[in-house]
Amino acid sequence: MTHGTVIFETITSEVLKDNPLHDLHTRRVPIYLPPSYGDTDIRYPTLYLLTGFTGRGTMLLNDAAWDENINERLDRLITQEIMRPMIVVMPDCFTRYGGSQYINSSVVGRYEDHVADELVSYIDQKYRTLADRDHRAVVGKSSGGYGSVLLAMHRPNIFGLMASHSGDMYFEYCYKEDLLGYVKGIKKYGGLEKFTQSFESIRPRDSSFRSIINVVAMASCYSPNPNSPVGFDMPIDEETGEIREDIWEKWLGWDPVYLAEKYADALRSLRLIYLDAGTSDEFNLQYGARIFAKRLRVLNIPFIHEEFNDGHFGIAYRYDHSFKAISEAMP
After folding, report:
1. Would you say 186 and 238 are in contact if contact means Cβ atoms under 8 Å apart?
2. pLDDT, position 1
3. pLDDT tens per residue, range 279-312
4. Were both Cys, which of 85, 139, 264, 282 would link to 34 (CB 3.0–4.6 Å)?
């Protein structure tokens, strides 16, 4: 088997400078170059691979028991001619709260602009890419799948192909359980303001912590409020557990199932929309994918939708399917 090369680029972001969370604006980004890259002068398609919540691109390179890391997977797929040789970019969009959802937020920072403008421009200038939308794909799992959908909706001039593995959709099912977990657990940490000041030092990090940090991260993206002491609004009443409908509506304004009609022309222009989710997904994302697929069908937008017998975790093997579909959809 032939092997590609992983290069680490240090990207200094202008749009992430002075971000409200004071996260570093210099990011370490792995770039996978296919095995033939150094032997030819041809140009290659690019694939931007987005990690899930609490992830960053370097984590895709980690060794995994009984499985391949991403460069091993790419080597195999390219050697076996299941996918065409591509340059694969693995962005770092981690934030203090665990993730950016790959969108622009006044609380978190301009991560959509960072990926779609800064990273794409940097990669196209430095590497031999086919620098057009028809040869540029965005793919991700979980929050990365969500980011792939939003980037394709907002930037169809940049990304002409999109794949979402178990992406966040239909927020009624995938987030409301954590909202209840937030209400049940936040008081033991002294309330929201105290939690946001010192959550990094909390041990042990039990299920209530995980629910709270997930809701905090999503609120920082979906319902920012510069007049709030923490910079964002929660869509649930901390005392009663009642949904705050005005804030929840702001969240739904970011839900792909409700955005499909608004961005129908952008979605229709894509060379590929690929969706999948496990039938036992722990966050109910199989239903979100089904609902989104139904919306696309009504709008006469072509797509591929698959389900598989598994849950939400340990499903990197599904990249075999999306990378193949992307290769076949590119000109």
Report:
1. yes
2. 87
3. 999 999 999 999 999 999 999 999 999 999 999 9
4. 85
Closest CA to 151 of 159, 140, 141, 142: 159
- Contacts with 298 (C-beta within 8 Å, 6 or more apart), sequence order: none
* Separation between Cα atoms, residue 248 and residue 172, nearest integer Å: 10
CA distances from 106 to 150, 218, 279, 283 (A): 17, 13, 35, 27
Summarize pLDDT for 114-158 with one digit per residue, the tens. 999 999 999 999 999 999 999 999 999 999 999 999 999 999 999
Q: Is 265 helix (H, G, I), strand (E, B) or coil?
A: helix
Per-domain residue ranges for the chain? 5-170+256-329, 172-252
The answer to whether residue 64 scores a pLDDT higher than 90 is no
Side-chain half-sphere exposure of 233, counting CA atoms within 13 A? 17
- For the domain spanning 5-170+256-329, the CATH number is 3.40.50.1820
Spell out the residues 6+ positions from residue 194 whose beta carbon is closer than 8 angstroms to its own: none
- pTM tops 0.85: yes
Q: For residues 64 and 59, give the distance between their C-alpha atoms in angstroms, rounded to a whole number.
A: 10
How high is the pLDDT of residue 287? Answer: 98
Structure tokens at 282: 């722990």
